[in-house]
Specification:
The protein is α+β, with helices and mostly antiparallel strands and 179 residues long. 35% of the residues lie in helices and 10% in strands.
């Protein structure tokens, strides 16, 4: 495995290890090194941690992430913009897979479309590890990482997601035969 990948216990592969900024290196030393734990987390799709303490862009997965955002906003040229379910079907029919080799699902796709890491903002210390509750904004740390998607495109996706949200707009209004 000379390409920087390592085998996880369940047989899956992960390219490198997710380590973040230099201001967090002390945290990682005390958490993982002194306790003898290993970080088994696969980095976010489109990124890989090839250089120590940096999150780099994986060119192959970068294309997939850019394709997902493009299809959601503009469509594939044969139809208009694709919704999340149609986009999941489109990706799975054409053989696209997640980082772990699984088929895309609506939850995975929604996670990609709403994750701010793709515009260069990785938020560290978001949840309490024991209770899994959201920590206050003042305790969260935003770490700059390489961006894959432009901020404007990301914001347009967020607006579209909010407009199509069935909790905001009833599904019959969005998908009904009379628009």
């Amino acid at each position: 495995m000379g390409d920087g990948r390592r085998r996880l216990p369940d047989g899956e592969f992960c390219r490198g290890r997710l380590t973040l900024g230099t201001d967090l290196s002390k945290y990682f030393e005390t958490t993982f090194v002194t306790k003898g734990q290993k970080d088994r987390h696969c980095p976010i799709m489109g990124h890989f941690g090839r250089i120590k303490k940096k999150l780099d862009i994986d060119p192959v997965e970068q294309e997939t992430v850019e394709l997902i955002f493009r299809l959601y906003l503009r469509g594939d040229g044969q139809s208009g913009p694709l919704g999340t379910k149609a986009l999941v079907s489109w990706l799975n029919e054409r053989g696209y897979r997640t980082r772990r080799g699984a088929r895309f699902g609506v939850g995975t796709l929604h996670g990609i479309l709403t994750n701010r890491v793709y515009i260069g903002e990785w938020i560290f210390n978001r949840r309490d590890s024991k209770t899994l509750r959201q920590k206050p904004q003042s305790e969260q740390i935003t770490v700059p990482v390489p961006a894959i998607i432009e901020r404007g495109e990301f914001e347009r996706v967020q607006q579209t997601l909010a407009a199509r949200n069935p909790k905001t707009t009833a599904p019959r209004v969005v998908t009904g035969p009379i628009l």
